[in-house]
Amino acid sequence: QRFSTPAEEYAYELDRNRSYADLIPIAIAEFKPGNDALRDIQNSMDANRRLREQAQQEAAKMNHRAALAVLHSATSRLQNALAAAGLRVPQDPRPE
User: Fold this and answer.
1) How far is residue 75's CA from residue 14's CA, in Å, rounded to a whole number?
2) For 80, phi and psi rounded to 5 degrees?
3) Tell me: the pLDDT tens digits for 22-80?
4) How far is CA 3 from CA 13, 20, 28, 75, in A?
5) What is the pTM of this model?
6) What is the DSSP letter of 94?
7) C-alpha pair distances (Å), 18 with each of 14, 25, 34, 78
8) 3-state SS of the chain: helix, strand, coil percent to 5?
9) DSSP run (H or E) holding 54
């Protein structure tokens, strides 16, 4: 993807984060992970929420590059939650 501005990229990444979050209940229902996995999923979702809030604070200050960095970490937590549920998703490449 190519974006005109960091704000545009942030909006895209925020939608992407929400899409991963929407998949988690579906993955739990489909794969029926055990209690340890459910605890890992909840921890990852909690970390995502905290990081997403931090990213939104940075975006509100118009610091979209910092917001993107934090949001990428948040999305990584959701990818980990999906993996714990039993759904393997490709991890995002690390920024250069």
Assistant:
1) 9
2) -65, -40
3) 999 999 999 999 999 999 999 999 999 999 999 999 999 999 999 999 999 999 999 99
4) 11, 21, 33, 19
5) 0.90
6) P
7) 6, 12, 24, 9
8) 75, 0, 25
9) helix 35-60
